[in-house]
Amino acid sequence: MADQNPLTLFDRRASRRFRERAARRWGEADFLVDEVAERLADRLDDVQRKFPLALDLGSRGGVLARTLNGRGGIEALIETDAAPGFHPTVVAEPDLLPFKPATFDLILSVLDLHRVSDLPGALVQLRQTLKPDGLLLATLFAGETLTELRRAWMEAELIEQGGAGMRVAPFADPRDLGALLQRTGFAVPVIDSDAIEVSYDSAFKLMRDLRAMGEANAMTERARNFTRRGTLLHAIEIYDAAAGPDGRVTARFEIVTLTAWAPLQAR
Known about the structure:
Blueprint: H1 12-25, H2 31-43, E1 53-57, H3 63-68, E2 76-81, E3 90-91, E4 104-110, H4 119-129, E5 130-141, H5 147-161, H6 174-183, E6 187-200, H7 203-212, H8 229-240, E7 249-261
Parallel strand pairs: 1-2, 1-4, 2-3, 4-5
Antiparallel strand pairs: 5-7, 6-7
Helix pairs in contact: 5-8
């Protein structure tokens, strides 16, 4: 049964189930996470500090651990993930962490925080889990991510079913995230936004990759019945109509990086 709290944007059980399914298929569509992990790890080269104890939030089987390659002076990396199938050090949700306050020197997260219902609450937990003057480096999907897919689904459902549901989850506006970090107690927040565009033979292959990544629709208010074949085919047709001269379609992922410090004086 889904979470019943009307303010719960995501169904935690469904999200965990999709992530566990992704763990069984990991490697089929890991390119995006690999790319973002590499970019996140590169940022540690610009920080003249060592972080002996670090937390990897949403480890997906150690993608970031393999990428760090000694950067940041990390002596121990604790991996968490909601899916036991990824074999993390600790099985935990990104917004339900079991750690004591002021535990970590550094918290890293690759594309995990966009799937929590209460992002402010999750950020408060992360700030409390950091030692004073500890660093948060986190990436998440935001802004214009998958806008084309969202529009294709809406148009197809309006035509085929006379109404449109929420097929693609909303993503945070990058302009709001800096203020959110300040509001949740972080110091010196910096927000960077970058876009990664991926081309596909068809919209169907994009949908298949999203499923393999564990990014299927886990919204609490999602439709629970099977998607009508006509609606699916119409959504694919609408999306594929925007193909370029090479016959391929493009999916845009807006990646936002949060950089912020826990204050020297705990709040």
